[in-house]
Fold these 2 entries.
Entry 1:
Amino acid sequence: MIIVFLGPPGSGKGTQAKRLAQDMKLVHISTGDMLRDAVRNGTPLGLKAKEYMERGELVPDELIVAMIEEVLPQKGGVVLDGFPRTVAQAQALEGMLKNNDKDVSCVFLFDSDDEVIVERLSGRRSCPNCGAVYHVKYSPPKVDNLCDVCSTPLIQREDDREEVVRKRLEVYRNQTSPLVDFYREKNKLKVINAERSIEEVYADLKTAISNEC
Ligand code: AP5
């Protein structure tokens, strides 16, 4: 199964992708997490990606496609979280899958209003060590500001500052939202109301996967 999660920043793609991958024994591929690792480790990709990410812009397609080409063929069932993000990336994905006699099974659009997103991103805290994600109100850690998994102090992502969030929303509207029609025309798009609670969104997702994918 090849599942794509599409949606604005902060709509909950990562939260749901981690859970779904664990539950359905799929591999979670998050381009955002891969890029943050590359930046942290100072790799050539990380050095190129850093400035785009800090400005809330997309990293160029050729870098992203090369990164995915390295990992995708080795995997079986996957949840793609944050990829593709442009029509060019979606076409490249089609080509990669076709070479392996595969196709995208389902695309889920996490639909959410800008105000909900700004509130979620301003309250998001992440573990710089293991990548676990929390929210000060909706998904708080057991001990204030410490990761439940590895007890590392939590941080706020640089690109969750309000001006960068607004830029990311604009980039989503201009460059990523055309994928909605791209996948709708292929009859693969399912819309999920991402404004409900984490539990409710997950329940909707599971129902849609068993009935429609
Ligand atoms: P990336 O890391 O992919 O960021 P994003 O898509 O903007 O998504 P986020 O991680 O911000 O949000 P999310 O939807 O995963 O929400 P989450 O579950 O964390 O990309 C970062 C950057 O990398 C990009 O700006 C770009 O520069 C670059 N990049 C990445 N991929 C690229 C690509 N393919 N091409 C080019 N460039 C690329 O939830 C958010 C918060 O809300 C959390 O605190 C969570 O606990 C909480 N929450 C989640 N669900 C709920 C709920 N239902 N109710 C209440 N709270 C909730």
Entry 2:
Amino acid sequence: MTTLRFKALDEISRRNLSAATHNDQKISSYFGSDVFDREQMRQYLPKDVFESVNTAIEENRRIDRKVANQVALGMKCWAMERGATHYTHWFQPLNDSTAEKHDAFFEPLWGGGSFETFRGDLLVQQEPDASSFPNGGLRNTFEARGYSAWDPSSPAFIIDQTLCIPSIFVAYTGEALDFKTPLLKSLAALDKAAVDVCQYFDKDVTKVVATLGWEQEYFLVDEALYNARPDLMQTGRTLMGHTAAKDQQLDDHYWGAIPERVSNFMKDFEEQAYRLGIPLKTRHNEVAPNQFECAPMFEEANIAVDHNTLLMTIMRKVASKHKLKVLFHEKPFMGVNGSGKHCNWSLATNTGVNLLAPGKTPKTNIQFLAFFVNTMKAAHDYGTLMMASIASETNSHRLGGHEAPPAILSVFTGSTMDAILNSIEQRISDKKLSPDEKTEIKLDIGKIPEILLDNTDRNRTSPFAFTGNRFEFRATGSSSNCAPPLIIINAAVTEQLTRFKAEVDALIEKNVKKDEAILQVIRKYIKESKNVRFEGNGYSDEWLREAASRGLKGINNVPMAFREYLTPESVALLERHGVLNRTELQARYEVKNETYLKKVQIESRVIGDLAANHIIPTAIKYQNILIENVKGIKDIFPQDFEDMAAEEIKTIRKIAEHVKYIRAHTAEMTEARKKWNNVENIAERTMGYESEVRPYLDDIRYHIDKLELIVDDQLWPLPKYRELMTIY
Ligand code: ADP
Ligand code: MG
């Protein structure tokens, strides 16, 4: 009987893949055609309704019932003209996916006949029977009610004849059960704090939005091979597999020519993305074999987050048409790079100014400096919480390795900004500035754009790097929703801007001139946040030592990192700005622990099964072949036997050794699981899994990978790394 592996390889060799079916139209001719955006709203809604929706969005206000009814009518009409038959509230529960439950517009009439309907109340709010989403104890199943409610600031769209309405998801008692609710709250808080600070510089600023440009990395694997790897199917990563002789060491994949099959896949999903208004701009090969990246033009953070989760869903769907599987896991393969999702973050005003881009005049540059320094200070004060926000079981395989920023938060500013910060720190003192000093500082600040333009220094080893006109949070994992890190960054910067305003106002009250007051506070923050600045190599051991001596807290243990969510400082931060309350944080903490624990539990079961049912039987089969061979040698060459069979006998012993260890470790691992499963407290149980179950995964893998090198290739049941990492 052939193994799944050989069936898969055989299937691949016979496969005749059809070419991409993408159209040749200009992208601009169909961009956003499946989105109920402002332009469509203008066309489908009465003028006054359109205007009140717009104002509600601008001012983060509720939309009243009457208006909602008319929006529903317009939306239904628009959607049905485009062939939609169903509608759904589309939301992002606390796992790494999106949720939807489709209902038909169609309504049968009592006594015969039917019609299509969609009312305002259905648009605004729904009560999905959603007791099975992670909720961290916020909803007991007997009180399973959760509500989804329309988020008018993210436009509705059509997928597969279904009108999808971006929504938040909250418990009956009001607590958030999703990522979007706290994200929206953090954005509203940030808006207010940032506008207040902007008022020092420009009275026309009435709204500030956070912008997000994500970069999504992913792997592709042939579907047939994927289906022959139970570990990939069930855990998203390979739990075993010896590294291939050649993988990324020749650096020949990064930005290389994109294989045709892959570019067909890309064109296909890009077309769907464009129809949905996702402004994808770049695509390229990444470092590891079969690793790729795509990135859009940045957008308002809330929409960018929706677009990222939406795109991940589309990519999964489109991949199967090309007989590919997309792997969003942060570390699907040992020994080659993992995948991240860089989050480029900045702030934009209603006047069209990017607050993290140096301006043209000293005045705009002081504004830039204020936002720059406040962001840096926020990272200094809440860096550990930022790292906790991206800590997960899957991301932990990637962080701190030599491909991803380490688990300690530091800020890279670039040499130009570094020099400017240092000079401000030295120049401005608490006493009044002399006119000469003032001129010098202004000249200095006035020079920022010029210098930055020539500045090409980039530091890829920093988790939070300033890249000229934005900060780039690089520690985010590829499978994660972008919202958790953004929620923390937004809240921390909000806090910081609020403090900044209070301190500047206090100085102004003491008759310090506004400009000078601002510079003095900036200088104070530069001093106070100095520890978080690091321009060197974040992957080096010196940095680990240096960071420790600076008192920067790293994250070396994921379940420990989760505790950061419950420290008094974190709770105070998030409660103060109305982002998440203690109950919600406790719930998130439990969900994070539970997810972590379950992932380790599943991996542990899968490796146990594979070891017992695939690997050990295969090893024994091969061992028996060797034993037969040795017996034969003995029969035919009784005199030379010892010499001739020496190597075979050694190999037989080696196999026996590895099998013995695999068996022993698997049994111990199962015992450890049993022990910790009996512990009631979820955080304790998770910690137990982390320290006593998880290490076995590597131990067992070690022996399996050794066996892979020994056993006859014809017998080996699982596709090997060299096969998985080829696009055929
Ligand atoms: P790199 O790989 O050098 O970081 P990419 O072009 O792959 O560059 O990605 C840069 C990302 O940063 C893009 O998604 C881009 O839209 C985003 N970006 C640029 N300016 C801003 C901004 N002001 N706010 C948020 N994101 C931004
Ligand atoms: Mg980047």
